[in-house]
Amino acid sequence: MNSKYDILIVGGGAAGFFTAINIVERNPKLKVAILERGKEVLSKVRISGGGRCNVTHACFVPNDLVKFYPRGEKELRGPFHQFCSGDTIEWFEKHGVELKIEDDGRMFPTSDSSQTIIDCFLNATQKLKIDILTNQSVQSLFKGENYWKVETNVATFSCQKLVMTTGSNPKVWEMLTELGHSIISAVPSLFTFNIKDKRIKDLMGLSAFANVKVKNTKLESSGPLLITHWGMSGPGILRLSAWGARILADKNYHFVLQVNWLNDLTFEETLEKLKELKLEHSKKAVSKKSPFEFPNRLWESLVLASEIFEDTKWADLSKNQLQNLANQLTNGEFQVNGKSTFKEEFVTAGGIDLKEINFKTMESKLHPNLYFAGEILNIDAITGGFNFQNAWTGGFIIAQTIVN
Question: Is the pTM of this model over 0.85?
Answer without folding.
Answer: yes
